[in-house]
Amino acid sequence: MEAKAIARYVHQSPYKIRKTLDSIRGLKVGDALNQLHFSPEKAAVVIEKTLRSAVSNLMNLAEDSNLDPESFDIIEAFVDGGPVMKRFRASAMGRVSPRRRPTSHVTIVVSDNN
Fold first, then answer.
1. Which of 5, 55, 64, 93 is the most buried (most CB within 10 A)?
2. What is the pLDDT of residues 39-75, one digit of tens each?
3. Considering the domain 2-111, what is its CATH architecture?
């Protein structure tokens, strides 16, 4: 059985989130949570929250209550680009310089190996 969780409109670029997400793809949930919890990166907080949500979704789907959430596998983990907020900053001599504020959508799919 599989369950999915999506975190939308995360205020960080997909490139930066992808660096952390690549390190947990294919791991067991227990190992991935341990690695994310002690990671100093900002993206680790969002990924950990999304992973816990996916595990909770799978536990709610399964009617078997003796499942061990630590033994679930991460089947898919990917990040897509969201909308880019375009802002401006004051620059020298009365000009403006553009700022891009990218957002991301993080998707995690977990399975219980059955």
1. 55
2. 999 999 999 999 999 999 999 988 776 788 888 999 9
3. Alpha-Beta Complex (3.90)
